[in-house]
Amino acid sequence: MRVATLLPLASALLAALASPARSQDWTFADGFETGTTCAWSLRVGSADPCTPVPMTVLQIRLDATTRLVQLSDVVITGRTVDGRHYWVGDDPISEPDHGLFVFRGASASPLDPSFDLGAHVELTGLSLEFDSTPPGNRRTEIFSGDPVLLGSGSPPVPFGGLPLSTLGAIDAGEPLEGVLVVTSNAIVTATGPDDRLTLSDATGTMVMDDLAFDYSAASYPVGTCFGSVTGVSHLDVVADERLLLPTSAADLVAGPCP
Length: 258
Known about the structure:
The chain is mainly beta. It is built from 3 helices and 16 strands.
């Protein structure tokens, strides 16, 4: 399991949440200054960049502007194995461009189990297009503090009907980044380090990883066939490849070989 793949080395580090005068008052340290204020760090054309902008996941995905945002009611669609980070969508029924990754910091404590898949939450954080070094493809995400639990909900419904050739492609798979998806009739054709498995169907391939569900690759040797595989589509910015991340054993449904 390569949890480090999910840990963005973001230059903006969340330092504090304070001030009752605002819904959230943020201070960021960006590595180029020592005290820092969000007004200095987030010059995005706003009179007061410390005030979060209410937005939806769809708006963030399509806007791609670095800014402080507030999501008032989104649904958790996946969690990392360590419980620190998660994915959200605008609605329990997944759709393209309605998903993104929420990173809470490398030292964040695991979320309470009540923040499970289907839970409705509110959160405030810095939206950004994250990349690694050397630069490549960028991942839309939110760098956030602790979410507020609004209530439980029904399990999220994955978006389906797309082949691995689409889900695994950098360009064609962009609208599915951060979205809970399902694909059909796949077979394990290769194994790699850290429990990475290559899935193949009649159209192409995609790598499956255990960053959201700690499975063992030995349980799914080459030749294993799935009737369906459900998981979050996630961009590995280090390897510049898209990953399919199942969230539980129930996401891996045995079936006839394609």
